Amino acid sequence: MRPPVIAMFVNQGVTFEEDWARAVGRHVDLVVIKSLRQGEEASSVEEAVGTYGLHVPRLRPKRFAARPNAALWAARVATLLERIQERHGSVDLLHGHFYPMGGLLHRLRKIRGYRYVLTEHSTRLTGDSAKHKRLSTVGMRSATLGYPNAEIVFLPSNYLQMCVERLGLVGKYLVVGNPIDTRHFSIRQPPLKQNRVLWVGRLESDKDPITALRGFEIARRWVPDLRLDLVGSGPDRPLVERWISDNEAEDVITVWGRQSRDVIADLLSNAAVFVCSSNVETFGVAVAEALASGVPVAAPDIQPMRELVGIASGRLYPARDALAMADAVTGLIQSRDRFAPAMVARDVRTRFSFEAVGTKVAAAYEQVLLSSGSLV
To answer: CB of 228 within 8 A of CB of 216?
Structure first.
């Protein structure tokens, strides 16, 4: 049986989408199509047999440009796919991320006969996000067309499946999680655990960094040598820095801004606890990376966190409750001997390593293609 040829669409610079490519590229002949800003060149994906760049106008136009842009996007992708097939053989499946891609892939299926799968991650579908409005009419149309006509819609959590079904969106759903790069995020020996807390995320309302700061300040009353490393960028950074200044906490809180995986991995190697303060998640990649590194997690008691964090790997606290967060953080520090790094890491590494997720996705591809007689 020949390996299937899959063309996956990712956005240049979006790490978790590229992680999907790296995970499944181990099992199939994967061609990556990267959406680019004008003037860029596509960076290669090491597990892919080929990486191609594509620039099209963003599908966020004003009223009268919507249809022409959609048609242009589909035409340019179709032309690129013809070139890919000349080099790599017949493309068996297209794989896109997020519901807007569903509209494009549905169009390609209709006009060129390409079959496709989708991976969905969007917090907009939860209805809980303060950052995003609910789906627009155009967005709902993309999802309504894209989901039912996809061979599979991969989801990162049971929670997101519940949310999309609550919206009345019909599809063949399969929960597989998100792939975690365990080459970067692993247990380091010997672990240098200091009384440091690490927070990683975008500085915005959905991630609620201010509650994390308040919880840390309370926890420091009980653990005076506690320190906080805050990693991320975003619109709330001025608010975060003002809070730190107003509370004269510059000597105990470090705002690192956006950092590479290597820096985050180094910070995890010196962290006693990872803290999450998100009000809404569809999976929780930063939490999973911390767990894969053997660092126990204090996380809000929301469903995606319940799917990740167990009694052997951390503690859950009521969302938006700074006092409860402080209690969870100090409890983890004071009982750190209970949280052996190998036990903390075991579940997430077993379920969400590149190999684990890639194997599940490749098996789903194979099932689709065998049922259609596409593989011989």
So the answer is: yes
